Amino acid sequence: MTDRTGVRKAFNSYVAAYDAEDPKIKLKIAHTYRVAALCERIAGETGAGRTELAWLTGMLHDIGRFEQIRRYNTFVDAVSVDHARFGADLLFREGLLERFAPELTEAERRILEKSIRAHNLYRLPEGLTEEETAYCNILRDADKIDIFRVNCETPAEEIYNVSTQELKNSAVSEDVKECFRNRTAVLRSLKKTAIDYPVAHLCLVFELVYPVSRLIAREQGYVEKMLAFESENPDTRAWFRHMRENIWK
Ligand SMILES: [Fe+2]
């Protein structure tokens, strides 16, 4: 049984140690609550997992982000740490979990740890049980759905480290277009230009596991908002038209 009030309180006191004025910290706090609520909803509507445990995976999935920002001042895992592994190590190897949820059973701890470690992977690891796979999928879907919102509400300078003008001028790489055509996520190494990043984020639509996740993503409207991007590059404009027509098919 998860003591939600206790978890919320512990989360608030944990993040209070970080700079609340830093927009990166603010973003991750809001993202955490959104993802937790989405996990709960997906678990509830699919029956794929218990809502309370799914909610908890959402609350703790990005706990490594705060220390990552404090130590490295970046969200880019490639130049700092793998934030999922880092967060799971803090929770499960350094005892941080006791602050949030000391009452979990061994089985719940295992599910929580596996879900957190796998949440940012391109593909799920081998060897997960059916139950573990379900919680991993719920969290991964919830996280992706909220990425669409973050894309719309955060300036390009902040998420992609590029200027808005650069974004408007740039062309989509052929490899990234190919991922969209194949309806698959984009490997990090394929992203070359500024506009590749939002296009890659849009490709996450194809990775949503549960039909209800697609429904939520559509109903929130952030995907449409991303697709309405007005490029000043004619090829990119045509490409966005193509994506608008095909993304939900
Ligand atoms: Fe994450």
**Multimerization status:** single chain
What is the general shape?
globular
State the separation between the terminal residues, measured CA to CA. 40 Å
The secondary-structure class comes to mainly alpha
**Hetero ligands:** fe (ii) ion
Radius of gyration: 18 Å
Beta-sheet strand percentage? under 5%
Mean pLDDT: 96
Q: Total domains, how many?
A: 2
Q: Which CATH C-level class of the largest domain is it?
A: Mainly Alpha
Low-confidence stretches: none
> How would you characterize the largest beta sheet?
none
CATH topology value of the largest domain? Hypothetical protein af1432
Label the CATH architecture of the largest domain: Orthogonal Bundle
SSE topology string? HHHHHHHHHHHHHHH
- The CATH homologous superfamily name of the largest domain equals Hypothetical protein af1432
Beta strands, count: 0
Query: Helix count?
Result: 15
Helical proportion? 55-70%
List the defining traits of the structure above.
249 residues, mainly alpha, Hypothetical protein af1432, 2 domains, 65% helix, binds fe (ii) ion
Write the layout of secondary structure elements.
Layout: H1 4-15, H2 23-46, H3 51-60, H4 64-72, H5 83-92, H6 97-100, H7 106-118, H8 130-153, H9 156-160, H10 164-169, H11 174-181, H12 196-203, H13 211-220, H14 222-227, H15 234-246
Helix pairs in contact: 1-3, 2-3, 2-8, 3-7, 3-8, 4-5, 5-7, 7-8, 8-13, 11-12
Bound molecules: fe (ii) ion.
Structure characterization notes:
The protein is mostly helical and 249 residues long. It has 15 helices and no strands. The protein has two domains: 1-154, Hypothetical protein af1432 (Orthogonal Bundle), CATH 1.10.3210.10; 159-249, no CATH class. The protein binds fe (ii) ion (FE2).
